[in-house]
Specification:
By secondary structure, the chain is an alpha/beta fold. It is built from seven helices and 13 strands. 25% of the residues lie in helices and 26% in strands. The chain is elongated and about 70 Å long.
Amino acid sequence: MRVGVVGQAAFGRDVLEALLSAGEEVVGVSAPLAPEGAADPLAGAASEAGIPVLDTGSLREPAPLEELRSWAPELLVFAFVTEIVTRDVLAVPRHGTIQYHPSLLPRHRGRSAMNWAIASGDPVTGLTIFWVDEGVDTGPVLLQREVPIGPDDTVGSLYFDRLYPMGVEALVEAVALVAAGRAPRIEQDDALATYEPAMGRRHASVDWSRAARPLYDHIRGCDPQPGASASLHGLEIRLFDAALSPASGRTPPGTVLARTEAGAVEVAVIGGVLTVGRAQRPGERKRPAAELLQPGDRLERTA
């Protein structure tokens, strides 16, 4: 079966290499190209393998779209696609288009699925390979895999330790199912769907009036991006590498209690102590939290 890969970055590269290792016929790749023509990892790997490459952003134009059609792909595989892809592109492959999504659809549709799964306190998440339609993560499900969310997982650990490698494997498995004519199309139940916006600065503000566990879930769901944010003397500071331990006390939540020998700081929260390993001012590098916070500081919610 003739396969086209649309994607970017290391994930797209690893999907391409896994498909080639599995013996799939990859006839072309679409990836974002910088104005000067610099290739991202997917585009670079395709070029090294002698596979033609198109700029994904150019597929709205007639000539690149015709080149995509000339590859005669029977299936398109979306591996980390952030561009809006047109109906004309989706109409090219006769078997359709499949895509990786890091949640158990229809729960957590949208581009920040992993962030919201952790921030919502979900105990389980997973990945979905689905058939792309014109909605946002709304197409029929081809296959799913579940993974537990550990009590201290961040978006970084959840993705790189589990959902990334599992996603590469699942896309290869899905392509084989399509080629064999055994790929299901299980309609999503829209009554069970959730959709959250991209996790950004306005969602990252820590509410210090929350109980320890949901507050900690929220911080983990913002790590490493966009970084949970708090206000210190009216200036924003972002918090990373957090840990939670139970405790009781009357110290106002958000108060820095102590510094640790490792350079972290301990912060009072309702029903616990939050240890913050690193902190960051906007525009600066991340550094040990004790370099930016000292005992007695009071972290507040950002405006």
